[in-house]
Structures are given as C-alpha cells and as structure tokens.
Amino acid sequence: MTNYERRLMRFRNRKKGATVDEGSSETGATKRPEAQEELAGKTVEEVSFNDLREEAKKAGLEGYGKMTKPQLYEALKNAGKL
Predict the structure, then answer these.
(1) Would you place residue 49 in the very low, low, confident or very high pLDDT band (cuts 50, 70, 90)?
(2) If 0-12 CB within 10 Å is exposed, 13-18 middle and 19+ buried, where does residue 4 land?
(3) pLDDT, tens digit, for every residue of 1-45?
(4) DSSP one-letter code for 52
(5) Domain total in the chain
(6) Is the domain of 24 the same as that of 52?
(7) Which of 9-13, 35-39, 46-50, 61-65 has the lowest mean pLDDT?
C-alpha cells in the first residue's frame, strides 16, 4: 500500500472533528493534553514552536499567529503561563 493510499484510507475513515496524535494511529486521540505541564520551567530552546502556539491559543493571546518562537515564549511568560 502506498503512502497516498494510506492517507486516503485515513481520510475516509476519520471521525468528523476528531484529532489524531502524530505518533498514534487511533482516531479520536487528543493532541498533547500534558503540554502545559511540559512547558513549565523550560527555556525557549527546550520548547517547540507548536507547543508555544498551542498554549498561546489556549491562553487567548492576541496576535499569536504572527509571533516568532521567542515572542511567543515571552508573551506566555508575561501572561504567567510559563
């Protein structure tokens, strides 16, 4: 089975609105619920850009979509989320 066929099969079998963890083959798995605990006490180099964006979105920070990784880190730190 080719990659295209696998992706097509996953697309056809997906549940509407469900998210899949990148490392998981199960549908309906949530994406990294422990992300906030992982961010606490870490430096900007130790945290991924995607985790920072996810936390900024949860925190309701305006303009997070246009921020760089260091800007996201500082904004979350100033908001008391890190």
Answers:
(1) very high
(2) exposed
(3) 788 888 888 888 886 655 554 444 444 344 555 555 667 778 888
(4) H
(5) 2
(6) no
(7) 35-39
Statement to judge: residues 27 and 40 lie in one domain: no
Residue 30's pLDDT is 44
51 and 13 together in one domain? no
What count of other Cβ atoms lies within 10 Å of the Cβ of residue 82? 21
Burial state string for 43-72 with b = 16 or more CB within 10 A and e = fewer than 16: eeeebeeebbbbbbeeeebeebeebeeeeb
Judge contact between 59 and 79, C-beta under 8 A: yes
Q: What is the pTM of this model?
A: 0.55
